[in-house]
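User: Structure tokens for this complex, please. No commentary.
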Amino acid sequence: MANQLYLSSSPHFSSGESTDRLMRQVIYALLPAAAVSVYMFGLPALVTLLICTLASIGFEAVCQKLMGRPRTLGDGSAALTGILLALNLPASSPWWMSLIGAFVAIVIAKQIYGGLGCNPFNPALVARVVLLISFPVQMTRWTAPAPLSLSFDSVTSATPLGQAKEAVMLHGALPADLAAGFGDFFLGRMGGSLGEVSALALLLGGLYLIWKKVITWHTPVSYLATVVVFSGIFWLVDGTRYPDPLFHLLTGGLLLGAFFMATDMVTTPVTPRGMLVFGVGCGLLTVLIRLFGGYPEGVSFAILLMNAATPLIDRYTQPKKFGFVLEKA
Amino acid sequence: MQLKTFPGGLHPPDNKQWSAHKPIEDCPLPEELVVPLGQHIGAPAVPCVAVGDLVKRGQVIGEAKGFVSVPVHAPTSGEVIAVEDRPHPMGRDLPAVVIRADGEDAWGDLLAPLDIAIAGIDELRQRILSCGIVGMGGATFPAHVKLSPPDEKPIDTLILNGVECEPFLTADHRLMLEESDRILSGIAVLQKILGVRQTFIGIEANKPDAIERLSRACADLPVEVIPLEVKYPQGAEKQLILACVGREVPSGGLPMDVGVVVQNVGTCAAIADAVLRGIPLIERIATISGPALVEAKNLRVRIGTPLRKLVEVCGGTRVEPAKIIMGGPMMGMTQLSLEVPAIRGTSGLLLFTADQVSTRPEGPCIRCGRCVRACPAHILPTTIAAYARLDLFEEAEAYNALDCIECGCCTYSCPAALPLVQSIRYAKNAILAKRRKV
Ligand code: SF4
Ligand code: SF4
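Assistant:
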């Protein structure tokens, strides 16, 4: 007879899906966007990516050691947070800012709460917002794209969203040539943080995730659709003050947020209905902040605010249990 | 055509190709049969033979005790050599009658065949009880109880469960292909007892030959075959009813609350034997499969045959099995040894190698929602399991732990390898135990 027989209660079959595999897939899906950013901004972008990723992994290892938690670097979640953080920073970020960002993301926003699965807020976004508030100058010094540049002394340029906001505040109207840049926005030739630049690369990555069933369509679709509809209403009311929906879609961190941040599993609802609510909420907040808030970009704040609402959303979007209706009848 | 189904569930690899095309073979008689007296849900039977007695095939060796109970019969002729506790597939040692087969396999006196045109409904029910018929899909609930709905629950629909959604298992599939006439006779008996308006046979679309065969056989009968989407757990009673007739059994309720009785096709065939031929339930068809086995087969097995015998008939093992499962991989029970006997609920025997045994350490829940999307009961497995692990049973109950049908979809789909259904089962037991006490 067998030397070792396993006894266990059912089921004895599993899908083979694992946390590591999911995280790895998200990292793969981010590679096109990371590659475009390195192409557009050159060496500084690569350095920022590397510092953020390695520092995140390092902080995770140190924390797990100090806190006596099992080492789980293999699950890839720290590396993923690092990459997402880098994609949320300008290419010209000084090295120490990347380091502080990684510290905030991993130590403060994740490990202190208990590690993977316990953090209420998206770590990369917490770090971005902390940096934005603490180092407003460095965080908004956007470099102009300079393909394959090796230089760290880059030309600065405003982001399209920033330009639009400034024009509206100063002149009460959008700049006239707004639509001229759409082709550039799509491919990534615009100022912005690393991961904001190419809509095409982000879209590819996002569709890959849906195709591989890593994420479902609910959050990105409801998020993007809400932005289109809501910003479209303002645009129809006054097209000289409010940019059109396509501009909103292609600029800033919207696609990065909709496909990669609002779909972060840990910090968003578990039910499909909850994901729809979450997406709609993110969409509304993003448009409101972009059009009426103090900052030109609202994706990070929108997602973080909705992260805070996640427990509530989960509570009120519980599926209707099987046999519920008839029981009440 | 859009196939009918239910919301939730998943698509595990079905692994039926190993045995689906293998005709049913008779498993040879073992020398010794261990027939447990409790093989059904409800009170175990009381032994009515003693050591040294000679018994004939089909003779009663244990009598039913109470309404929710059934008698037990000798699977073959021979001598009773022990009436004692023996290892039982459910995990403990339980009372059993041990028979040494004499090789004659001689029938005892059987009950007289009944003519369903003449027999009364109570007589038919009594026959089903006397022949020890229980649900053979694995639940082993006494069939006569299901067929005795109280007057205030009128039944208008009979559904035959030919879904067989568990991976690997093909016993019902072969039965439908090779012995459809037994099923049809059984349906006639059930229709007479229940007086139903409509009868359906639900079969997953991955058995097109069985669907075609039964559709043709039922062409002139008031029976409709419904092909169902291939999805686990399509064969779970409530999910099957929803798919076939669009009725949702109330939470905590029974199929009869929506006017439906569900019987497995194997049970139906056994009912036909009992009524039309007077033959008690002493054998069943089981699928023997799994990667550790030399050859997968569908066997007609006498109740009480040790599992070891079934493995031998399949050519033995190719490698040391690392896990022995009675039933399917989603809901079956692991066994400690091959010495336990096949019982009435043994729909399959699977031998897994170490490759199929997942020993991945569990990680923290990453709230991916996979368990939620897969759950056919539409509850939140991750939340309930989390409460269960903290022994917070009231919270678990508030999140509808008791609605869990223990299908295992949540655990199957969890990337963090969390034992979700296992935790939920634990909470359910605690909640029910407390209810009994109050
Ligand atoms: S919670 Fe229960 S019903 Fe839901 S998937 Fe898990 S085992 Fe199945
Ligand atoms: S499937 Fe596992 S990891 Fe995903 S939400 Fe459910 S319990 Fe958590």
